[in-house]
Amino acid sequence: MSSDSVQLCLSRKTGEMLHRLRANRPLVHCITNEVVQEFTANVLLAAGASPAMVVGEGEAEYFAGIASALSVNVGTPYEARIETMKKAIRGALAAGKPWVLDPVAAGGIPWRDKVIFELLEMQPTAVRGNGVGTGGKGVDSLDDSSSAIEAAKTLARKYKTFVVVTGLKDYATDGERVLCAVGGSEMMTLVVGTGCSLSALLAAFLGGAERSLEACIACCDYVNYANDTASTRSSGPGSFHFQYLDALYQIRPEDFRK
User: Fold this and answer.
1) Are 18 and 46 in contact (CB under 8 A)?
2) What torsion, rounded to 10 degrees, do the Cα atoms 226, 229, 233, 239 define?
3) Is 201 in a helix, a strand, or coil?
4) With bands split at pLDDT 50, 70 and 90, how would you rate the model's confidence at 131?
5) Alpha carbon distance 219, 225 (integer Å)
6) Contact, 14 vs 218, CB < 8 A?
7) 112 near 79, Cβ under 8 Å?
8) What Å distances lie between residue 195 and 33, 73, 175, CA to CA?
9) In 3D, which of 131, 126, 67 has the Cα closest to residue 97?
10) Which of 19, 23, 44, 21 is nearest to 32 (CA)?
11) In the chain, at which end, N or C, are there fewer CB atoms within 10 A of the end residue's CB?
12) What is the mean predicted confidence (pLDDT) over 54-78?
């Protein structure tokens, strides 16, 4: 892909989206990796959204209908959890609410891939992943995100969704346009839950601002800014964990206009 076909995100737009999110304080229903539930909830709170970790099969469908957005992460799947995911998705779709799919470790295990493809058929508003989903190690892809652009465009066109690919640079595409956000540091890869929580934040932006490609890349731009800020204040993964939450909370919409 030629460099002139990738558009850099305008930070002013990010500020507008962040302002709208905080004004609306979207309620984000998260069915996520069991390892990262607390961190994901704290990230949403720090950003200005309201988290809800509703995982009961009997209530997920109803709750997804009253939430502002739904985030589904397949990091730790099992049969009952998958059924809960599907019920929640049906609830979100019936209510016209956006939902985000995080296909953790796609391309690694046939059974997991089957589940992911079933969820893709349920019309996610956006899909967020790392790299191209090959050569991964655990939940982290080792691929450069730029190598995934064409695959992301194909996926977006096939499933009529936004696809967000995060890595050394972040990209968002609707199958035609590609937007890019830059910034951040490798420290994010040393704290469990930063990627999973980014998917929940993406749901917050789509539920609290507008459903657009710009909202997707604005979420990445905001996270990169917080990442940069936290990296300069921390001395390692432990302090970064807390500095990142503080940065998400302290960053103001007007900061992006500078």
Assistant:
1) no
2) 20
3) helix
4) low
5) 10
6) yes
7) no
8) 11, 10, 22
9) 67
10) 44
11) C
12) 95
